[in-house]
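Cross-posted from the bioinformatics board.
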Amino acid sequence: MPTSPVWGSRLKTRGVVLDLIRAARTISRVELAASSGLTPPTISEAVRDLMTDGLVVEAGRGASTGGKPPTLLQLNPNARYSVGVQLERNACVIVIVDLAGRQVARTSFRGTAQMPPQQALPFLATHVNGLLDAAAVDRDRVLGVGLVSYGPQDRHAGLLLTPQPTDEWFDYPVAPRLAEILGMPVVLDNDAAAAAIGEYWIGTVDPRSTYGCIYMATGIGGGVVVAGEVYRGSSSNSVEIGHISIDVHGDECPCGNRGCLENYAGPAAVVRQALDTPGLADQLVLDPAGTDFLSEFARIAAAANAGNADARHLIEQSARYLGCAAVTITSLFDLDLIVLAGPSFAVAGSIYQTLIQQEVDRRTFARRAHPVRVVPSVSGSDAAAVGGAVLVLQSELTVGHAHAEDGMLPVRITSAGSTSSTRSPRDQRSIPE
Amino acid sequence: MPTSPVWGSRLKTRGVVLDLIRAARTISRVELAASSGLTPPTISEAVRDLMTDGLVVEAGRGASTGGKPPTLLQLNPNARYSVGVQLERNACVIVIVDLAGRQVARTSFRGTAQMPPQQALPFLATHVNGLLDAAAVDRDRVLGVGLVSYGPQDRHAGLLLTPQPTDEWFDYPVAPRLAEILGMPVVLDNDAAAAAIGEYWIGTVDPRSTYGCIYMATGIGGGVVVAGEVYRGSSSNSVEIGHISIDVHGDECPCGNRGCLENYAGPAAVVRQALDTPGLADQLVLDPAGTDFLSEFARIAAAANAGNADARHLIEQSARYLGCAAVTITSLFDLDLIVLAGPSFAVAGSIYQTLIQQEVDRRTFARRAHPVRVVPSVSGSDAAAVGGAVLVLQSELTVGHAHAEDGMLPVRITSAGSTSSTRSPRDQRSIPE
């Protein structure tokens, strides 16, 4: 049986109306009815509810179309906030965004490196609390925290299904534990999926677009958004572009696959290639025993931008490999846009953008059907953290409320921890999505 | 602005109810209400409409749960029919299916080879008319024809965006022209997408599954189905798995990409490899100048099944290459099932199934999150044609009725021809989906 459609649910209606107001910035009730296909009385009721909750406010009058000028509505951006936390080995970012998706506070710091989760999560919580205090954000107005990191994940249980960077992380309940420390709801999601949806919410992406995001930090991930919603697949472990094979005869990767993109194009691979290039390591002061691939990669990228031929060759080679994978996701998902996000694109964006665009233009299967644009993320290095915060806003305000009480806006998410102890054995369960 | 949701539309309700009855085979009104989330009066009204139109009939009584045993409902399979036509160079299949998706007539014949469309379409129409006459199907009950073929396509205009097999095919309005000859609506779609949705409609796929179909005839295509609907992307040119690169350093393909899967694993590639294997060509009587790769490939597959070591090596090698691409689509779409469909899998199914399953189990990124099964299509060689017919049923009966009159079941689709003359220039337009 298909999942029950909740036709005409009052809460779903509120979500649709709220998202239309958000997307339009200012809009009248008449325009809301026209855009949504809902009747004027239904719109009026939903708007009244949203105004009572303080989520929507009136914003003057629009242009008259003959009669009385219509009252315009807009979000009340200070009504709610959410926090985005990017968990990464080499660079962490935390942001607070308001209901309109605008960043109101931000901090970044060196990543959690080889810390076990028992140490890393209190460390992250200290930063979150510090940022909330510094920004003087009322905690009662914080919907929750979007914790974003690499995959594979069990998103519903809020844990990572990988022993990266240390064995303790595998199967550790990161989201429930962070929720416990912070005393607020925490949802776990994929960093690249977060970056992708963040682009939609705060960026300039056409809402009808089917677009992809390639996210490059220490690793390479991907996300696809279809009509404003993240493509999830059967367990929210989709678009793992860093671990698709670009060479069927390539070397085995620790992930189990062979010839993985990440081992050709990712920061660690480029650093390794630089160490193998005579003279370049000395010239750029690269550490053969280093593990902070993000900084070392940034030095190579900076040298490429400054005209160093060897460095430029390596970055261009990385871009061509990424171009190959970009063509693959474009031909598979039939994308009309690719967004490049994350710190490793941020340092050499124009080289990557130019060469990936060339590959996509030349090699995508359906290039005669429509053009495919390659653009940098509007959020650059912060894209994943901003997206994590946006995912909280989106899931709380517009979709996924099937289990909430009709007509009530849930300000608190059920703690993810409760699902952890009832999981069936790993090899038998399927993760419903 | 997002597309208008048509909340509570009477027609959409009918579609939901009809699809629930189809999926359940027999179901009571009470069970329909429970499954759909719709109120009992809404269900009663929708069922009354469907019975008036002859689409649904009563089918005795179910088991009592205390009170009066409930009346069961089922589809009236003879109420409507649709036709599926698979257009292929080396093998064409035409099927007629009833409302329940059951095949009521079938014919197959050698493909359209190098015929130009001006010759191929009347040829196909003659076969369609002959099959309808032979099966004595009332044309007033035929919803339309699903014409399925390879991509890229402009699905809305009903034309192919490829000069395969001859230049005349590029941009030729195949669907409008066939509609004109047959005097009935014709929709064009991708053969692999059709095969995928056909599996859902008539097969044993879990409706919540996110699954992929790899379709191998002369070429290799793919389709993904999410919760019972084909994943479309921005222009319905998605999942072109035959033209993703499995070797970034591989040879250029006529499609513009390099290292394409089809050139390693497809029937023509296997035939070429067999011709290069000393002695094998003579042994299997392969024609070095032949173009009917399907039959030649079938001879190699038969030899592999019969224990010929050289032939088996080639089929296994093809299966490993396909396994690499299967891992790619699984890690990108996060699939829980892969269906192998089409004539070229039908001749060596167990070798392909075993080896692709091995690769997926070993190399898929999220294999710790859930298992991924690889299975043969229930429709085998006919999967695309059956799927073409099913797509007509699905689009006419359950979804995509936003423009139809509320409460009216459209028995005739708007001719696809009307959109052809109003297209904007190829390089400027985007195809809405």
